[in-house]
Amino acid sequence: MEAITFAEAWSNLVLLGPEIWQACLETALMLGIGLSAAVLLGGPLGVWLYLAQPGQILANRFVAGLLGWLVNLVRSFPFIILMVSLVPLTRLIVGSTIGPVAAAVPLSFAAIPYFARLVEQTLREVPRGVVEAAEAMGASPLQIVFKVLLREARAGLVNALTILTISFLSYSAVAGVVGGGGIGDLAIRYGYYRFQSEVMLAMVLLLVVVVQIIQLGGNYLAARLDKR
Amino acid sequence: MIHLNNVSKRFRHPDGGWFDAVRATTLSIAEGEIFGLIGFSGAGKSTLLRLINLLERPEAGAVLVDGQDLTRLSASELRRARQNIGMVFQQFNLLANRTVAENVAFPLEIAGWNRADIALRVAECLEVVGLTDRAEHYPAQLSGGQKQRVGIARALAPRPKVILADEPTSALDPKTTQSVLQCLADINARFGVTIVLVTHEMGVVRAICQRAALLDGGSVVEVMDVKQGEVQALSSAARDMLEAA
Ligand SMILES: Nc1ncnc2c1ncn2[C@@H]1O[C@H](COP(=O)(O)OP(=O)(O)OP(=O)(O)O)[C@@H](O)[C@H]1O
Ligand SMILES: [Mg+2]
Hints:
heterodimer, A: mainly alpha, MetI-like fold, elongated, B: alpha/beta, Rossmann fold, four-stranded antiparallel β-sheet, 11 strands, 36% helix, binds adenosine-5'-triphosphate, P-loop_NTPase (chain B), transport (chain B), membrane (chain B)
């Protein structure tokens, strides 16, 4: 690799501007789909997993065991293997195996149990006595979930979502390399295959900044929501 | 108002054996009464109290509250019946992410009241416990005594016929204890709410109860009358307890 001046590197990056922007959009799309799936499906799954634990309002050994086992099963797959093994499913759902939407399938698959586990752990922080007070007042299980558990744990849930977002920003880079596009893919294509290290560096810096922003935003929101 | 008819409750121990927390117990509590449940730690006071709103389901026996046998109700009927039975806890159990007013509104939301009625009722109840000026505070910003007043206002909000209180003053200092007990006595006098109060202190029984059951080993040893602030105890166990207190 030849050394280049800062000015040359900068002009290379400027030339790549539209492609970088495109890569950002692709990453945002992958993350958007993955995180939505995590919240919409993994959230309820996590609540159910929590409620099925012994001593909770829907306690059921069998359900708790089964859900816990499923969550662990999917979570134990290395992400790259999960991606490859889900290729047939991806083709079935999306009709293609390349592009950010296709990459979002294995991402969602991994994000759902991950978030479910985070939600379950977070809800454990709600004192049992508070749930019991709601039961004593005649609250239904649904009212307990929405008015007590989710509301009391809301700051923790925001933290869980922050953790999920940051983890999956990095997963999405892996997904990108195997045909998903996005920031990680761009970094590899130019930085690794074409020896344009400045592109790799720029993409990594971009990710560093984005991660910091997500974490700060998450912390701020959680602190605002926490009245304990 | 409350009739416990031969109720019993046992818990399974981790080692597989059974433990009788409440042995076949029959007890009647009259409407408008402040009734104490007293005994040493582990005597079964909390379990007996929790049998009254079926937070613990008895193995046997009937639990009649306001003429209804709670053990025979379906889940949704039981929820409706519970809206008629307020509960106050030693650890307050307030919702930390809700303001004082929102905490008091909680049982009313559960019961499906409309917004306007809720606002009126919340204001009334905060007035009763003297916390009108704290309506927009969060529980973390209150003292223990204030938290317990919120707990009482919350229990009172749906106009229950019965309030169950499990050691409502055990987390409070003596002075605050007096004011919280006074608050409960006021509510009993003004609204005729029947109150069942668990305590391990004879002082609390003397202060506000008309009668009290002494529990030991899961059984009622004696139901004592309280006259002019003096507990009328016959059994030796009750006298021991009186001397200890
Ligand atoms: N959920 C439970 N599982 C197993 N054992 C229990 C359970 N709840 C209560 N017990 C046991 O039942 C007995 C009576 O408990 P209970 O809480 O009613 O006593 P208490 O009189 O309220 O005592 P304290 O003054 O300490 O609160 C105790 O020995 C306790 O260990
Ligand atoms: Mg107790």
